[in-house]
């Protein structure tokens, strides 16, 4: 891993167009080299985009592997590029809602698009808090933490710590950068449609917002065309969210993500088993994977 990190450090000296093309080339190889993830992506696309032909879904899956690989390779810029130069690569669509973030409890709702780490960088106009998955490799774990902490103070939590530290941070004025669109099982989740397929969807965002009175501001980061950098869009706060029905709030969250996925479908995380947990009595959608 240290050797890989060394090569990533060297890579951050390359111009972005070259770095991006290297990432795309590696992604093209990954599509064939990691058959399990390829099969998961294609299953997800068949479920979510039945209107496409199989040929179109295969092409979309290939583009996704390229985008995913590119985001990993270009992470070297987040980790080592001088901070002013990193911000020069980020185009904010509109503006960062700094005043709103400082005026009261705020959840920054960031779906799993491949450039999500860039969204975290763009939001660092003030200290934040976020969930953090500890990595098994110590060198890589230290690098991941460094990449998050170099842009200013950030309070990182693990899933094992539960919800209490998040509530405390929000009440102390730290916006919570939240990625709630993964399948973590049936606990604290509701089965609501995602592209018309029942998906175990965390209700945590609605429950946290209801408990703290936090506004929820969606933020989505994507690639700019022609290797020119990244676009980050902060959307207006979700209106009347979450309301009193947490299942309806989870449905609204999924509907928002669906709309954004349709805009840049190759950049959403299709290699995750989004439908791993099934309603009682339903068979697995990922047999043998």
Characterise the protein shown here.
This protein is an alpha/beta fold. It has one domain (about 1-265). The chain is about 45% helix and about 15% strand. It contains twelve helices and nine strands. The strands form two sheets. The protein has a seven-stranded mixed beta sheet, sandwiched between helices. A two-stranded antiparallel sheet has the order 6-7. Helix 2 packs across helix 4 and helix 3 crosses helix 4 (about 55-75).
Give a brief outline of the structure:
By secondary structure, the chain is of the alpha/beta class. The chain is built from twelve helices and nine strands. The chain has one domain.
Order of helices and strands: HHHHHHEHEHEHEHEEEHEEH
List the total number of helices: 12
The strand order across the widest sheet is: 1-9-8-2-5-3-4
Distance between the termini: 26 Å
Summing up helix and strand content along with how strands pair, one would put the structural category as alpha/beta
The gyration radius over C-alpha positions equals 19 Å
Mean pLDDT, to the nearest integer, reads 95
Apparent shape: globular
| Count of individual domains | 1
The low-confidence runs, each spanning 5 or more residues with pLDDT under 50, are: none
Please render the helix and strand layout as text.
Blueprint (H helix, E strand, L loop, with lengths): L1 H10 L4 H18 L1 H14 L5 H20 L1 H6 L2 H6 L1 E4 L4 H6 L2 E4 L6 H7 L5 E4 L6 H12 L4 E4 L6 H8 L4 E3 L10 E6 L2 E6 L1 H9 L2 E9 L6 E5 L11 H18 L26
Parallel strand pairs: 1-9, 2-5, 2-8, 3-4, 3-5
Antiparallel strand pairs: 6-7, 8-9
Helix pairs in contact: 2-4, 3-4
């Amino acid at each position: 891993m240290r050797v890989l990190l060394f090569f990533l450090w060297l890579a951050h000296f390359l111009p972005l167009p070259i770095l991006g093309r290297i990432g795309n080339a590696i992604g093209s190889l990954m599509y064939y080299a990691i058959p399990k993830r390829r099969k998961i992506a294609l299953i997800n696309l068949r479920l979510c985009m039945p209107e496409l032909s199989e040929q179109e879904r295969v092409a979309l899956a290939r583009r996704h592997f390229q985008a995913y690989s590119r985001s990993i390779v270009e992470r070297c810029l987040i980790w080592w590029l001088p901070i002013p130069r990193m911000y020069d690569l980020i185009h904010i669509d509109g503006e960062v809602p700094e005043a709103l973030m400082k005026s009261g409890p705020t959840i920054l709702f960031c779906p799993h698009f491949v450039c999500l780490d860039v969204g975290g960088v763009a939001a660092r106009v003030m200290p934040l808090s976020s969930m953090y998955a500890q990595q098994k490799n110590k060198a890589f774990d230290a690098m991941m933490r460094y990449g998050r902490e170099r842009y200013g103070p950030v309070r990182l939590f693990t899933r094992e710590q539960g919800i209490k530290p998040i509530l405390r941070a929000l009440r102390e004025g730290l916006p919570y950068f939240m990625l709630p669109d993964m399948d973590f099982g049936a606990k604290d989740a509701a089965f609501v449609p995602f592209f018309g397929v029942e998906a175990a969807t965390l209700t945590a965002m609605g429950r946290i917002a209801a408990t703290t009175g936090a506004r929820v501001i969606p933020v989505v980061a994507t690639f700019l065309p022609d290797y020119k950098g990244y676009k980050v869009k902060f959307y207006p706060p979700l209106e009347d969210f979450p309301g009193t029905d947490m299942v309806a709030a989870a449905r609204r969250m999924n509907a928002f993500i669906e709309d954004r996925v349709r805009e840049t479908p190759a950049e959403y995380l299709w290699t995750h088993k989004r439908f791993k947990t099934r309603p009682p009595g339903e068979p697995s959608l990922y047999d043998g994977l």
